[in-house]
Structure formats: C-alpha cells, structure tokens
Amino acid sequence: MFSIRALDYLKSLAELQVDMIPEGALYLIIEGDTFTWRRASKSFDLNIFQVGEKLNANSIAGRAIRENRTIVQNVPRSLYGIRLKTIAQPLVNEEGQAVGVFSIVFPRLHPVAKSFENFAPILVEMFPEGAFLYVSDLTKIILAQSSKKFDMPTTQVGYNLKEDDIASKVIKTKQPFTTELDSSKYGVPILITCYPLFDEDNSDEIVGTLGVVIPKLLANNLREMSDNLENGLSGIASAIEQLSASASSIHTNEQELNKEINEIISISEKINEISTFIQKIANETNMLGLNAAIEAARAGESGKGFSVVAQQIRKLSEQSRSTVPEIKKLTDDIKTKVTETREKSQSSLNSSEEQASATQEITASIEEISSMSEELNKIAHTL
To answer: How confident is the model at residue 129 (pLDDT cuts 50, 70, 90)?
Structure first.
C-alpha cells in the first residue's frame, strides 16, 4: 500500500519508468471513485480508463479499495481485446483506510512474443532463400520479421487474419499446420508452417500463433528440372527401346539372309555337280557316236542312215560339252558373288550384334540416370 501523500512521488516514478518497460505499461491513479491521472508508454496504450471516468466498483481497482489490499490479476482477452496483467495497489490515508488506488496495467505477452525481436532477425537469415516470421494474436498479426532476401509486404503488423489463412486454421484446431502454396498467391512458391501458442497458465487456451514462411523457388526450379530430366530420359529410353527392337529385327533378318545365302551356295555346288555329270554324259555320247560312225562305215550302203544318226549324236555331244564350261563359269560367278555377299552379311550380322549389345548398355545407363532423377525429385520435394 502507498500513502495518499506519496502521489507526487508515484507520478514522478511512473513518468521515469513508463518508457523503460520493454512491453510498455499504463499507469493509473484513482482517487475515491474517479480516475484522476493516467500515463501510457509510447509502445502501449489502451483507449480506456480516461481521466474523469468513474471507477467500476466490481473492477480490480474497486476490489482493492473495498478489500484494502493489493490485488494482482490477469485480465482475459475477451474483456479489452488483449491479454493484460493488472496490479492494483491501495492508496491509504493517515488512518490506513483505502481512499484510492495506484494501478499499473501491462500487456501480457507470450514468452515467444517477448523474445521475438531477439531471435527472429537471426533466424530468418539462416535460410538460404530467406524467410518471414510472424506472431499473431487471435485476430491479427502483432509481430513480423522479414529477411534481406524475402519479405511478404501484404502480411505485416496489423494485418487482420482471414478465415482461410493458415493462422486462422491453427487457432481453430489448436494444432500445428504446414502447407505449400504455388506462386499464384504470393508471386513465388512458399512453404508455410504455423504453430499454436498457448497460455502460460492454461495449456488448453490458445492465445496466438507463430508462423514461418519460407520461399521454395530453388526447390521448385530443381523439381521442374528433375521432372524435365525425367521426361527427357523417358523419351530417350523409349527411342532406344525402339532402336533396340529395330536392331533385333535387323539381326534376325541378317541371320535369315545368311542362312539363305548358304543355301544358294549349296545349290550352286549341286549345279556344278550336275554340270560334271552332263560333261560325263557328253563324253560317253561322243564315244557312242564315234563307235556308231565306225560301225556305219563297215556296213557300207546299208549303214548310211545309221551314219547320219551317229553324226547328229556326236554334234549333240559337242554342243552339250561346250555348254558345260559356260554353266560352270556362271555357277562359279554366282558362287563368288554369293560368297562376297555372305561375307558382307556376316559383317553386318556382327555389327547388328554389337549394336544390340551397345543399345542394351545405353538402356541400362538410361535406367540408372532415370533412377538418379527420381532420387533428385525426392530430394527436391524435401527441400
């Protein structure tokens, strides 16, 4: 309790201390049932308890006078729109009777809000792309801190929370909430994390929120690059699969061609065998024609007809024998060309095998790069 005579001292002390209190304060003096003096700090004031107003007997100050004792009490947000802590100290006369009150009203800030100006400037600069921190009460943003790299001009101190704001959802559910937003709302993709702040004396009563907003431009670009890389690799893999299928088809065709060429060579060899057989027949036919001519000469006039037949046989034999070298030359030429074609076909077959093998290796490499791209995409989503 203070003596009523110490009013001037109390006023001087209040004037000295009012702007030294970090959160600010409001000093009040009530004499009898009337507010006679008030002094608010620069950082805190309320449009209440004006000089000349009458004291509510049921108020904290009214109780302090009535009960003649110091009362310290927390005032809920519902009464003045802000949480307060009030100290009401009776002013007594010479008989010790309470004739007034010396009262101090403090804004009751959450410990996070009290220390915000100490940790927020440091924390926002720790993120590679910068960050934005804010503290809200139940209706508006009361503290905000931007980094050098990132700011949110539309969400500053005094911003009234909207129903679809993350902070409003946290206040309603009393649960932390994290979400990502694309660039349509704030110009860049962002990650917002918001946590509820509870009353120090009542862990079930939410009094505000702490929010962290982080730009995700780098992660978004990395994600897009990863997606583009994955899509590009998928296209390349598809083309290589088609190339591999073509190479496999070529390889099969070359095998069939090589097989047919071998069959043609085999046929040429059989033609040569037949030519040799014709040569043998021609020789034997010539011998028969010669023998027939000899026998016709011995027969004289009666063998003239047989002599004509013998001449025709020998003529036919000579024609057959002269044709055989031509057939042999043609079959040898065919065999030579086919052999050359077989060698080229075999070279092509070997190349197609190498191509198929190389395609398989490329496909394996593409699959490995695709796997790395998927991992890169996962990393991008965690940033």
So the answer is: confident
Q: Is the pTM of this model over 0.70?
A: no
Q: Which two tokens stand for residue 165?
A: 């704001």
CA distance 252 to 258: 10
Instruction: Give residue 211's pLDDT band: very low, low, confident or very high (50, 70, 90).
Output: very high
Q: Give the residues across from 3 on adjacent strands.
A: 92
Instruction: Quickly list DSSP for 8-74.
Output: HHHHHHHHHHTTTSTT--EEEEEETTEEEEEEE-SS---S-S-TTPBPPTTSHHHHHHHHTS-EEEE
Are 289 and 317 in contact by the 8 Å Cβ rule? The answer is yes
The two three-digit tokens of residue 105, written as one number: 């009203």
Return d(Cα 77, Cα 207) in angstroms, integer: 9
Total residue length of the chain: 383
State residue 226's pLDDT score: 59
DSSP H or E run through 141: strand 141-146
Comparing C-alpha atoms, which of 365, 318, 343, 370 is closest to residue 262?
Answer: 343
